[in-house]
């Protein structure tokens, strides 16, 4: 697969460049929306959960940093999935005219959102450096490239699956929109992980046994672990996510290859 994509690396570069350029075309702030969007959401969540409902703010030092460290990786996943779901269906005219590996379209969505993710996450370090209440865990920071790679591969696996299914069943697009809204609240973004693992409620305690089966909850907790070591998921769940990502990637790619044969006719 990757060998085929590399043969069309110029096309991949063109599509990624086009995707990034079109996203901010005719906007006043342009590429700065990469930073402004998570900052705006951070302020909203901080106002609601850190000030109005101040229990969360009391539990986590520098709550705004905690939200930002989870929100930016989630935005990368969320935007990649939304765009990736329509990666094939929105490029029907190009697919019908020229042959090239159709895996390029989902890969394009991941790479274009990765271009936005990297500078946005640098903002987290700027905020952390000026926060006296937070200490950067440099040993965890060394794992950051691996964390980003793990999330990118998991996201690509999901995108392969939903993009080709959306060609045959357009309901997938609407299901994913609803699912992503619910999925966000099942990840430790606006609340600390300890609210789940150290909760007195019997219902939450029972739910906590299944919480780490959500791979995005584990991945986002890894980002938090760079600044809040007590908020990182236990290491055994990292192994689980790695194995799940590899299996999901292989399975989704095989499904993509199988269903891809009739995409030109159906689309």
Automatic annotation (TrEMBL):
Main subcellular localization, coarse class?
membrane
Is the Cytoplasm keyword given for this protein? no
InterPro entries, per this entry?
ABC2_TM, ABC2_TM_bact-type
**Residue ranges of domain ABC transmembrane type-2 in the record:** 29-259
Bilayer-crossing residues are: 28-48, 60-77, 104-130, 142-162, 174-194, 206-225, 237-256
Is Mitochondrion among this UniProt entry's keywords? no
| Listed PROSITE patterns | ABC_TM2
What keywords does the record list, in alphabetical order? Cell inner membrane, Cell membrane, Membrane, Transmembrane, Transmembrane helix, Transport
The membrane topology term of the UniProt record is: Multi-pass membrane protein
Q: Which family does it belong to?
A: Belongs to the ABC-2 integral membrane protein family.
Q: What is this protein called?
A: Transport permease protein
Q: What is the lineage of its organism?
A: Bacteria, Bacillati, Bacillota, Bacilli, Bacillales
């Amino acid at each position: 697969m990757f060998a085929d994509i590399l043969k069309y690396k110029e096309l991949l570069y063109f599509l990624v460049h086009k995707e990034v350029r079109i996203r901010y075309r005719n906007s006043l702030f342009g590429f700065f929306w990469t930073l402004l969007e998570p900052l705006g959401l951070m302020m909203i969540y901080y106002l609601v959960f850190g000030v109005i409902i101040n229990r969360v703010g009391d539990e986590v030092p520098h709550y705004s940093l905690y939200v930002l460290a989870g929100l930016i990786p989630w935005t990368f996943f969320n935007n990649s999935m939304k765009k990736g779901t329509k990666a094939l269906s929105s490029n029907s005219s190009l697919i019908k005219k020229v042959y090239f590996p159709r895996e390029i379209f989902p890969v394009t969505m991941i790479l274009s959102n990765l271009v936005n993710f990297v500078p946005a996450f640098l903002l987290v370090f700027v905020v952390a450096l000026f926060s006296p209440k937070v200490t950067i865990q440099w040993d965890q920071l060394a794992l950051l490239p691996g964390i980003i790679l793990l999330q990118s591969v998991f996201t690509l696996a999901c995108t392969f699956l939903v993009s080709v299914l959306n060609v045959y069943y357009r309901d997938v697009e609407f299901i994913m929109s609803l699912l992503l809204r619910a999925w966000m609240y099942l990840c430790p973004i606006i609340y600390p992980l300890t609210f789940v693992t150290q909760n007195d409620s019997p219902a939450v305690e029972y739910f906590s046994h299944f919480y780490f089966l959500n791979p995005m909850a584990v991945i986002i907790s890894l980002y938090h672990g760079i600044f809040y070591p007590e908020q990182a998921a236990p290491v055994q769940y990292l192994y689980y996510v790695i194995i799940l990502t590899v299996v999901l990637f292989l399975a989704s790619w095989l499904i993509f290859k199988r269903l891809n044969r009739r995409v030109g006719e159906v689309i």
